Amino acid sequence: MTTLLPRIMRALEQFHATHPWDHNAHYHRWILRRLPRRINRALDVGSGSGDLARLLASQAGTVHGIDADPTIVDRARELTDPAAPATFAVGDALKEVPPGPYDVITCVATIHHMPFGDALTCFRQHLAPGGTLVVVGVYRPQPRSDYLIDAMAIPANVAMAWIKNKGRRAPRPASMTAPTRPATMTFADIVRGAHEALPGSRLRRRLFWRYTLVWHRH
Fold it and tell me: CA-based angle 185:189:192, to the nearest 5?
């Protein structure tokens, strides 16, 4: 399994290049369902082109997005209605977060670019009492169970690609994203680090090579 899977993944990458869809955006609606219907202030860390921030703006008074890539922040501003309560800034999320506290903090496919424990501690400090942190992240597969989940995700990924590209004459360009790097922490490492920084946090492996972390500050 461990030797065959990399070959399958390379074939899947080729398929995905011609039938693109956004694995991270797949979880945006899932995130919204974990949040209160009305939010005062929200922060989206690693906001990219602003897709999630714009969704958050539908139920938040104010949404701040922060990303380290100036080009993608410019793109987020271009795509966002000036009347929407969403703003975007370039910066290091661990040093230049717009002043909080926030009722909601989201972080999708970004935390593996940061020191994990420092990032969770920073988010905790900026979260208001009663607030919710939601992280969708990636992990480095290691145990056999991780590879089994990865294998299960392959047919699901192909099915979703066909569904999301159905009826399109040409493949849709993938969402603009900043340069990425592979995850270095295993899911077990992530669980240990999360429970140290955020006691009571809930983590689960998910399809499409993702995990979720949800924590409510009391």
Answer: 150
Look at residues 101, 73, 106, 41 and name the one whose alpha carbon lies nearest to residue 176.
Answer: 73
Minimal CA–CA distance to 61: which of 91, 38, 93? 38
Q: What string of pLDDT tens digits covers the 218 residues of the chain?
A: 455 556 655 655 554 445 443 568 889 999 999 999 999 999 999 999 999 999 999 999 999 999 999 999 999 999 999 999 999 999 999 999 888 899 999 999 999 999 999 999 999 999 999 999 999 999 998 766 665 555 554 554 444 444 444 545 444 444 444 446 789 999 999 999 999 999 999 999 998 779 999 999 99
DSSP-derived letter for residue 166 is T
What is the token pair recorded at 30? 């899932």
Q: Where are the domains positioned within the chain?
A: 1-218
pTM equals 0.79
CATH class for the domain made up of 1-218? alpha beta
The pair of structure tokens assigned to 74 is: 């410019």
Closest CA to 28 of 129, 107, 120, 144: 107
